[in-house]
Every structure is written in structure tokens, then in C-alpha cells.
Design goal:
- The chain is of the alpha/beta class.
- It is built from eleven helices and 17 strands.
- Helix content is 33%, strand content 19%.
- Strands 1, 2, 3, 4, 5, 6, 7, 8, 9, 10, 11 and 12 form a twelve-stranded mixed β-sheet that branches. Strands 15-14-16-13-17 form a five-stranded parallel β-sheet, sandwiched between helices.
- A hairpin with a 6-residue loop joins strand 10 (185-188) and strand 11 (195-198).
- The longest helix is centred in the C-terminal third of the chain and has 18 residues, at 301-318.
- The protein starts with a strand and ends with a strand.
- The protein binds threonylcarbamoyladenylate and magnesium ion (MG).
- Threonylcarbamoyladenylate binds next to strand 6, strand 7 and strand 11.
């Protein structure tokens, strides 16, 4: 067990001494958790195979699911990737730094372990001053998956990271809760038209407006378990975002959803289970569950996305046996929310109708 160093930093203008220490740890092959605008990441020098190996081990992450490589400038993309298509330049200019990860053909300088031996690489530039300062000061691209134990909800606070990884990593930079709360959108630029493999902080509709042609891969919609080749969507066969409790997600028109959630709540409570309901401000009063938590207002999808992973972790802390979650419209950021909920449920999706 390591002693994990915890540094509080100002999210806007992090103290340079602290960044120096953290960057030194990265350069020496260590592991540093840091905030981004989406979720906390667990960073290692992407070009150091031993460091990346330690990263997989700390997270207990299967070796076939490669991390995203974070860069602090666009030039680095041309070192890490080859055959960078023209549309990538437009996307990088318009959406970086920001919650958009691009998949390219990889270059020879990238160690096999960093890309799980695929011939592609996932790269993004995060919009967070702490992340950018750390990457730039380290002088290397930083491989950073979300800083949770594999299979758990992603961390949106430093405490979530410590709950999962204390003693397993060298340090964490704590800059408070993250803004977006769901991970970046993963867009594959090695196919034509480009395909979204994971919906996230940059909505499909926004990319569609920018690119004209863009498709949603079935794994991004996640309405059911889809079997795909590892090269297209590594890691989909593994469980993701899952709380300890069994989770059901109820989808349909709002009135039908509320009725179904109430019905399921009664059913499981009568069976003697402790039931949690994941509701919204507009509906939370309708349920007689053991624990009711609201994601926020249905008119504010940003708020809902920001609260999602935190509330899933809170249900675990309350020790509920079953979580029944209301679905939200799968539009804008709502598509990312529904992707996470559907996967977290292990595709236990209940369709509600009258
Ligand atoms: O917002 C985010 O993206 C956060 C923060 C820390 O930047 N990072 C994150 O990383 O969510 P991670 O490792 O938890 O998720 C990376 C996703 C996985 O779904 C992985 O399968 C996919 O990116 N991925 C990585 N390399 C890929 C590749 N070459 N081809 C297709 N998908 C890839
Ligand atoms: Mg993750």
C-alpha cells in the first residue's frame, strides 16, 4: 500500500509548486489523479509502458480496454497519430480543449500497452486548467482513464477517487467537483462517416451540425448489449458504471414512467428489499421508496448529468438493494445520461406505457 498524497488546488489557477511535484511523479513513472471538466482521471506517462501497466493494475482494469491519451497542445496529435483526416483539424479547432475524444490511427512511438495493441489511439485535450498545467509541466502525453476502480461509477469528486483508489495511487490533485459529470464523447474518425462510440459531454446534435455526417454506433445508444469487435469498441464486454445494488431503468412517457417506478417500488418493498428511487425534481414527491434522490430538474439536463454518478455512489453508501431509475429524454446530454444508466443497469431496461 502506498501513501497517497492529497493536494488541494485552485481549479482556475493551480499553485505551480504543487503542479511541479505532481508532474515530477508522472515523469518518474507514477500515478496522479487529476480533475478534468468531465470526471477525474488517473494519469500516467502515456509513453512509459511500465507506468501505463501500473495504471491498469491500480484500477484493476482489464488490459484489453485502452485509456484516453490527454494532450496539452494540438501538435502532439501528429506525433501520436498518423493519417489525421482533414475534418479532425476542424474538430480540434472548434471543440478543444473540451469533452471530445477523437480516435485516430496510432503512430509507432505509442507503446502497445497504451492502446491495448490496437492500431488506433484515443486522444483528447481536456478543458481544465489543472489538467492542462499538469500535462504541460510533465512534458509528456498523459494516459488517463476515469479514476475509479474498473466497473464503478466514474468519480466526480476527489473523495470518490480516494474511496476507490486510496493507497493504490501516488497522488491526487483535488480541485473540487467536476463541471460536466459525464465523460467525453468518443468519436471514431477512422471510419467514414465518423461514428460516435460513446456519447458524452459534446452532444451528437452539436457534432452533426459541425460535421454534417456523423453516425451513432449501437454501443453508444446502448439500448441492449451489442457484440462488436474489440478493435471498434474495446471494453464494451465489461460491466461499467455499476453500483452494488441491482439497477432498473424505466423508460417511456413521463406519466407512464412515474406510474411504473411507483409500481416497481411497491413490488420490491413488499418483497422485503430496501429500495432507492433515482428521480427528478418534478417527480420525487410521487414515490414511497426507502430512499428517494433527485438528479435535478428535467428542464436542466446539465444538472442531471452533473449529479448522476455521485447519486449512484450515494445509493451504495445507503445500502439499498434495488435502485429504480427514471429515464430521461435521450437528446443532447440526455443521450450520455441514458447510455450510462442503461449500462449501469446491465441493460435491465423496463419500457413503461399505458
Ligand atoms: O471524459 C473522459 O473521457 C475521461 C476523462 C478522465 O478524460 N476519461 C475516460 O476514460 O472516460 P476511460 O478510459 O474511462 O474511457 C475511455 C473510453 C473507453 O470507452 C475505451 O473503450 C475508449 O475510450 N477507447 C480508448 N481507446 C480506444 C480506441 N483506440 N478505439 C475505440 N475506443 C477507444
Ligand atoms: Mg471509465
Amino acid at each position: 500500500m502506498k501513501k497517497t498524497l492529497v493536494f488541494k488546488v485552485n481549479p482556475k489557477s493551480p499553485d505551480i509548486q504543487t503542479i511541479h511535484i505532481a508532474a515530477r511523479i508522472i515523469r518518474d513513472g507514477g500515478l496522479v489523479a487529476f480533475p478534468t471538466e468531465t470526471v477525474y482521471g488517473l494519469g500516467a506517462d502515456a509513453l512509459n509502458p511500465n507506468a501505463v501497466k501500473a495504471l491498469f493494475k491500480a484500477k484493476k482494469r482489464p488490459l484489453d480496454n485502452p485509456p484516453i491519451v490527454h494532450v496539452g497542445n494540438i501538435q502532439d496529435v501528429y506525433r501520436l497519430a498518423k493519417d489525421v483526416p482533414e475534418e479532425a483539424e476542424k474538430l480540434m479547432k472548434n471543440f478543444w480543449p473540451g469533452p471530445l475524444t477523437l480516435i485516430f490511427k496510432r503512430s509507432e512511438i505509442v507503446p502497445d500497452i497504451t492502446v491495448a495493441s490496437l492500431d488506433t489511439i484515443a486522444i483528447r485535450m481536456p478543458r481544465h486548467n489543472v489538467a492542462l498545467a499538469l500535462i504541460r509541466e510533465s512534458g509528456c502525453p498523459i494516459a488517463a482513464p476515469s479514476a475509479n476502480l474498473a466497473g464503478k461509477p466514474s468519480p466526480t469528486t476527489a473523495q470518490h477517487v480516494l474511496d476507490d483508489l486510496y493507497g493504490r495511487i501516488d497522488a491526487i490533485l483535488d480541485a473540487g467537483p467536476t463541471k460536466i459529470g459525464v465523460e467525453s464523447t468518443v468519436l471514431d474518425l477512422t471510419v467514414d462517416p465518423p461514428q460516435i462510440l460513446r456519447p458524452g459531454g459534446t452532444p451528437y446534435e452539436v457534432l452533426k451540425a459541425a460535421l454534417g455526417r456523423v453516425e451513432l454506433h449501437p454501443v453508444a445508444v446502448a439500448e441492449k448489449k451489442v457484440l462488436v469487435g474489440k478493435a471498434r469498441s474495446p471494453g464494451v464486454k465489461h460491466r461499467h458504471y455499476a453500483p452494488k445494488a441491482r439497477l432498473f431503468v424505466v423508460e417511456g412517457s413521463l406519466a407512464a414512467v412515474v406510474r411504473k417506478v411507483a409500481e416497481l417500488t411497491d413490488y420490491y418493498r413488499r418483497s422485503g428489499e430496501k429500495v432507492g428511487v433515482l428521480a427528478t425534481d418534478e417527480t420525487a414527491g410521487a414515490y414511497g421508496a426507502d430512499v428517494v434522490k433527485s438528479l435535478g430538474s428535467r428542464s436542466n439536463m446539465e444538472e442531471i448529468a452533473r449529479n448522476l454518478f455521485r447519486l449512484l455512489r450515494e445509493f451504495d453508501a445507503e445500502g439499498v438493494d434495488v435502485i429504480i431509475a427514471e429515464g430521461v429524454p435521450a437528446e443532447g446530454l440526455g443521450l450520455a445520461v441514458m447510455n450510462r444508466l442503461r449500462k449501469a443497469s446491465g441493460y435491465k431496461i423496463v419500457k413503461a406505457s399505458f
